[in-house]
DNA sequence: ATGGTTGCTTAGCAA
């Protein structure tokens, strides 16, 4: 089973790239973030014609997450349960092939100490609560998405420049450790223990052109699933060429039982 | 070099 996650930064702007990527890589599951469109304007038909079922938690202009899957999706959940504080579309989950798949877009946080950063911390608290209640040890679960956290020094091309940013600071590294402690494994991190693998390059700072990347998109798998991970990586090629997303697709292959 | 880009929506915000 090939599982992938990709922050497309607008599905309408990225539709041709997405369509090509689906047909060339044939993932069984693709989690999307920042689709930036309401459900009524989502390109359902075209994606179904490409052979995928789709579940979308859409939003106008900002955010928006989705799950594409070849298999049938059940138990779809949009947003955290009994979610009082969050009006932003950043969480969707569904069961596919017996695996609970979660597609998330964690808030960026702007600047440490800002209102946005506080929101990021509250959101991560909700995520941890959801995962605690998911009884990770009793079934396969996979958490995919733009976590807006680079967990290790090797996940940042220029760690000195980024230290203290909302993406890379001790508090965020601790948040990531807490997520793993709930029973998840960092599939890409395990595949590349020496780091040097990035998934996002800033448009503004010409990050890709300057080799200034960070690994902030992740595929976290429950332990039982993680031991069946045969390979994982980032499709860096997708960041090249005309009008790419600022994020590249991240993928992990699992042995099917 | 304290800049630079992109997307949505339409001048300002978010990343």
The neighbouring-strand order within the major sheet is: 3-4-2-1-14-13
Taken in chain order, the helices and strands follow as EHEHEEEEEHEHHEHEHEEHEE
**What's the rounded overall pLDDT mean?**
96
Which structural class is indicated by helix and strand composition? Answer: alpha+beta
Categorize the overall geometry: globular
Characteristic key phrases:
single chain; 257 residues; alpha+beta; Deoxyribonuclease I, Chain A; 6-stranded mixed beta sheet; 8 helices; 14 strands; globular; DNA-binding
Question: Quick recap of the structure?
Answer:
The chain has 257 residues and is an alpha+beta fold. It contains eight helices and 14 strands.
Characterization of the model:
This protein is α+β, with helices and mostly antiparallel strands and 257 residues long. It has one domain (2-254): 4-Layer Sandwich (Deoxyribonuclease I, Chain A). It has 8 helices and 14 strands. It has helices at 15-25, 44-49, 115-133, 159-162, 170-181, 187-191, 207-210, 223-226; strands spanning 2-7, 29-33, 53-57, 65-69, 73-78, 91-96, 99-105, 141-146, 184-186, 200-201, 213-214, 217-222, 229-234, 250-254. The strands form 3 sheets. Strands 3-4-2-1-14-13 form a 6-stranded mixed sheet. The protein has a 6-stranded mixed sheet with strand order 5-6-7-8-12-9. The chain is globular. The protein starts with a strand and ends with a strand. The mean pLDDT is 96. The protein binds one DNA strand of 15 nucleotides through loops.
